[in-house]
Design a protein that fits this description.
By secondary structure, this protein is of the alpha/beta class. It is built from 24 helices and 17 strands. The protein has a 7-stranded mixed beta sheet with strand order 7-6-8-9-11-10-15, with helices on both faces. A 5-stranded parallel beta sheet has the order 1-2-3-5-4, sandwiched between helices. A 5-stranded mixed beta sheet has the order 12-14-13-16-17, with helices on both faces. α11 links the parallel β4 and β5.
Length: about 625
């Protein structure tokens, strides 16, 4: 990171109050320094680059015009908010962003009074901000409330629900629509096309504002008459512009689109509209990756590029020549294409994550059979259900923590009809630096009670391949496959396809003293722990070696009852290990089985504790959760 003391402006800004002491003509220089600071820091401490670069001017303008933290700024898609963090007293700590015990990866009220709401996922800003705006009215507070939504988040259903309620609830909220035509990949759908085509006449808006202020001042316009006037003016505007936009059709004042990377103009507009009564939308166009040529040219790659050389823009890749296991997501993407080429019924569905889940591989080869539905997880599941109902075989890939947003859709639109389709949960378990909003901690627990689901987790890459092959066989019903972020353990993963018996686990290692039951790739860590424990026991007392059995359960549902009976008959000590919350997952299922079948067994459960796990590397967080090999070995001993 560069030396902040070299920054003429940033080194003197410890809070937005310092920013507001500057002249508006100085703000472009502040933006230049802020952008440079973000780029320099992220070159050595990786994070979300392109999104934050695109909203530098907006961030500066908002904190310059509004009296934060008294006035509320509610961010949507928190990876836009790095500049916000730097301007709000965290400049010196920004080097710890996403690191263990460092500042949080996304805004959170626990960290700063300037962070008004948690925003790790997308599309919640309008609803949250509306709640704050209503609270301000009821509490007789004069605070302003601003929702900043964008980076593809307008395609989320919650955003539309919020907009609909905003139109019918008395409030003075401002919604800033940051339209950069992207989420991570290029944003898609009718809303994206619509936003690109919206136009308004600036002369008309200026005249409208002056007339309405005059009418208010002389007492001819009150709140009741205001809505009638808005409808009349909107009708006139529709005639003049030969179109009506969706927001003004709902009696929400619309301004824009305007250049969101012009800080001086943004300040002028925000000052002009902030005191207007009633809900308002300011539509801005920004450039994702603005100010850094490599990020502007390829915003998808530079959304979160890892380490890179600041001067050349060259991404830094490990020089290790040893062959490495592939990422689970790449095994998914390549296997999906292979299966789709053999099975014409297979289609792919993803909510704005074709690159993140590697469905872009099939998208490139078979574009007519892959559907990116935008940030709309519930729709992705129900849309897949509709295709499954009429004979297709959807592979719907959604990150585990994002699948939480589609829970009712899984139950109502898939499970009740026992539809043949595959739900692939990428980023299951502890994911690392993105923290509690992104850990795939809960899927095992919240999916296990749902009838008709098959829930599986592969031990390694060949297992993922074979589970996908098994899942696409007709008559399997809704089939869930969960797998983690990052690389697995097998370099030569392209095995011949083999169907896996549904609901059947396997014994990986014999033993007589303790039985370890693991689910998914955390079994690799369990295997290391078993070796450590047996070696320590042998060194401690060679006369009594420890023999630990290891079972890979493969399926949480249906669980392998034959295997569990074998364990129940032969062991008095059992350890369950899962990369998910302890409450309700594998350990709970095993305890229920033993209790229901009269087995008196000492069971120790290892998994994510009943708490939100913060951010850090996967290794660091597993150690904290006592899910690393050394900690597991201590339990085994």
């Amino acid at each position: 990171m560069g030396d902040n003391n070299n920054f003429k402006y940033l080194s003197n800004i410890d809070s937005p109050k310092d920013l507001r002491k500057l002249k508006v003509e100085e703000l472009p220089k502040v933006c230049d320094e802020l952008r440079k600071d973000i780029i320099e820091e992220l070159s050595v401490n990786p994070g979300h680059l392109a999104s934050s670069l695109g909203v530098v001017e907006l961030t500066v303008a908002l904190h310059y015009v509004f009296d934060t933290p008294y006035d509320r700024i509610v961010w949507d898609v928190g990876h836009q908010a790095y500049g916000h963090k730097i301007l709000t007293g965290r400049r010196d700590k920004f080097c710890t962003n996403r690191k263990l015990h460092g500042i949080k990866p996304f805004p959170h009220p626990y960290e700063s009074e300037y962070d008004t709401f948690c925003c790790g996922h997308a599309s919640n800003s309008i609803s949250a901000a509306l709640g704050m705006a209503v609270a301000a009215k009821l509490n007789n507070d004069s605070r302003q409330v601003v929702a900043v939504i964008g980076d593809g988040a307008m395609s989320g259903g919650l955003a539309f629900e919020g907009i609909n309620n905003t139109a019918s609830t008395p409030n003075d909220m401002l919604i800033v629509l940051n339209d950069n035509n992207m989420s991570i990949d290029n944003s898609v759908g009718g809303m994206r096309k619509y936003l690109l085509q919206l136009t308004t006449n600036s002369t008309y808006n200026d005249l409208r504002y002056k007339i309405s202020r005059k009418l208010f001042d002389i007492g001819l316009l009150n709140e009741k008459r205001r809505k009638g006037l808005i409808r009349f003016n909107n009708s006139v505007k529709s005639v003049l512009s030969r179109q009506q936009n969706i927001f003004e059709g709902m009696d929400i004042r619309y301004f824009g689109p305007t250049d969101g990377n012009d800080v001086v103009e943004l300040v002028r507009i925000l000052n002009a509209i902030k005191d207007m009564k009633g809900p308002k939308i300011l539509h801005i166009h920004t450039k994702k990756g603005k100010g850094y040529a490599p990020a502007e040219e390829n915003a998808t790659i530079w959304h979160a590029p890892g380490k890179f050389d600041y001067e050349s823009g060259e991404r830094i890749v490990s020089k290790d020549d040893k062959p490495k296991p592939p990422k689970f997501q790449d095994v998914f993407g390549l296997t999906l294409l292979e299966l789709a080429q053999k099975n014409p019924k297979i289609v792919g569905v993803t909510p704005a994550m074709p690159t993140g889940c590697s469905m872009n591989i099939m998208m490139k080869a078979l574009p007519e059979r892959v559907f990116d539905v935008g940030i709309a997880e519930g729709h992705a599941v129900t849309f897949s259900g509709g295709m499954a109902k009429d004979g297709l075989m959807p592979f719907c890939n959604i990150y585990s923590s994002f699948m939480q947003r589609a829970y009712d859709n899984i139950i109502h639109d898939v499970a009740t009809m026992n539809l043949d389709m595959v739900l692939c949960l990428d980023r299951a378990g502890i994911v690392g630096e993105d923290g509690p909003t992104h850990h795939g901690a809960f899927d095992l627990a919240f999916l296990r009670p749902i009838p008709n689901l098959t829930i599986a987790s592969p031990y390694n890459e060949p297992e993922l391949r074979n589970m996908m092959f098994t899942a696409q066989k007709q008559g399997k019903g809704p089939f869930v496959i969960r797998y983690p972020r990052g690389c697995g353990s097998v370099v030569d993963w392209r095995v011949d396809f083999e169907e896996i018996p549904v609901g059947k686990g396997r014994k990986l290692k014999d033993g007589k003293d303790v039985a370890v039951l693991s689910l998914g790739p955390i079994g690799i860590e369990a295997g290391k722990a078993i070796a450590i424990a047996e070696l320590k026991a042998l060194n401690k007392n060679a006369a009594e070696p420890l023999h630990i059995a290891h079972y890979d359960m493969r399926f949480l549902k249906p669980i392998d009852t034959e295997l569990l009976h074998e364990v129940g008959r032969n062991f008095k000590k059992v350890v369950t290990i899962e990369d998910g919350v302890i409450s309700g997952g594998l350990g709970s299922a095993v305890l229920e089985f033993f209790a229901d079948n009269g087995y008196d067994i000492d069971v120790k459960r290892i998994g994510i504790p009943d708490a939100f796990v913060e951010h850090g590397t996967v290794a660091e967080l597993r150690k904290i959760c006592k899910m690393d090999a050394e900690s597991i070995a201590e339990v085994l001993l």
